[in-house]
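S1.2 Input.
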Amino acid sequence: MRSIDLLNISGPYGAGKDTMIDAVLGEFGPLIHRVRTLTTRPSSSFADPSYTTLPHDEFVKATLGSNWIVNQQLSGTVSYATDLDEICEASAEGKLCVHAIFAGDAGAGELRRRLGSRLVSVGIQVNEGNIDQQLATLRDRLLVRGRESREAIEQRVNHQHEVVRYVLDNPEVVADDGKAYKVFDYRLTNDDLDAARSKIITIAASTLQGTCLWINY
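S1.3 Output.
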C-alpha cells in the first residue's frame, strides 16, 4: 500500500484537468492508475476515456454503499460517482491513482474527508483573476475548443461560478482521521500550458515519493 493513494485535480469545466492528467500519464505511465468515473451524462471513449455512462436507475444501483462518493452537478440533472475501493486496490498494487473530481464540498471536499493525508489534491484555475475574469477565460476556451454549441457553453459557464469560488476559497474540512485539512494542497494556474504541465509533473513526482511539496503554485 502506498503512503499516498491518490493525486486529484479539481477545477471548472475547460480548465485543463484532463490535459494535466494526460501529462502525468505520459510521464509516469506504468506507475499510474487513472480512476474511473461513473456518470449519467453522455460520454464518449474519445473525449472521456475514463468515464462510463449509465442510465439513472443503473447508476443508483451501481453506487449503493459507503465506498462511493456521489455528487450531482448542473442543478442536479447529472450525477457522477467515484469508487474508493478502486483507489484502494490500485494503491495496494503500488500504483498512484490520478483522478479529477468535482470542485465542491460533495466532490473534492468529501474526497479529502475520506482519504485525509492519503490524498494530494490540486485546485486548478485558468488565470489569477477574480471569478468573473476566470469565467470569461473559460468561455473563450470552450468556444475555441468547439465541442459544444454556444448555448450549451453558456449553460456550462453559468454553473462554474461556485466551482471557481471553491478553488479560490480552498476551505478546511475535518477528515475521518479526526484531523483538519485544507481541501487543496496546491492551486495550479493553467494560463501557460507548458508551465502548467511542468508543475503538475513535479507535483506528481513528489506524490509518487509519498511527499507533498507544500508549494502553492
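S1.4 Remarks. The chain has a mean pLDDT of 91.
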